[in-house]
Amino acid sequence: MKNNYDSIADYYDVLSRMIFFRSQVKAQIQQLSAIPANSTVLIAGGGTGWILEELAKVHASGLNITYVEISSRMLERSKKREIKGNKVEFVHAAMEDFKPSGVYDVLITAFFFDNFSADNIQLIFNQLHALLKPGGIWLFADFYYTEKAGKKWQLFLLKSMYLFFSKISSVEAKMLINTEHFFEEQSYSIIKTAFYYGRFIKAIIYQKPGQLISILED
Question: Domains in the chain, start-ordered, CATH in brackets?
């Protein structure tokens, strides 16, 4: 099964921190204050679920979270997390097979789009875009590299990661696809942008066009 991390679920977080220290974690945590109270939240490809505990630190109750993850072992670990008074629906599915019952105030896609090939990434974006309410918040974090501004070590690390994950987890992508133009084409506003790990990780808080909802920008 493509993009399935079952084989490394038990040590995925350790591996991530060995390479990137806490940069991936910080990129996600520092976005969470933008989530309004009592939001409906969709997490696409949530991994081991540590983000649920961080969400509970920001909002101890009131969130209704849908957690979509293709890896059954990742999902098992996620279900053991402390969610306090929030409600979480765990969905074992690939995002492209997910059948939602409604739309959401907030989307979270952290290190998610880097799994998809150029043939599929537009379809995945369109699907998620349709699930976000007008004025909704999209928390995006992923690796960032451009030929113009990128460094040689970033390109080497990217190639190494894709080679590793293609063998271990059947990741379909062979290269990192820039997603910023998808958001631009749909007229998303950028609320905040932050870089981590020598500008190799980029975190963006987007807002979908439409009626504005209250967010925290600090």
Answer: 6-207 (3.40.50.150)
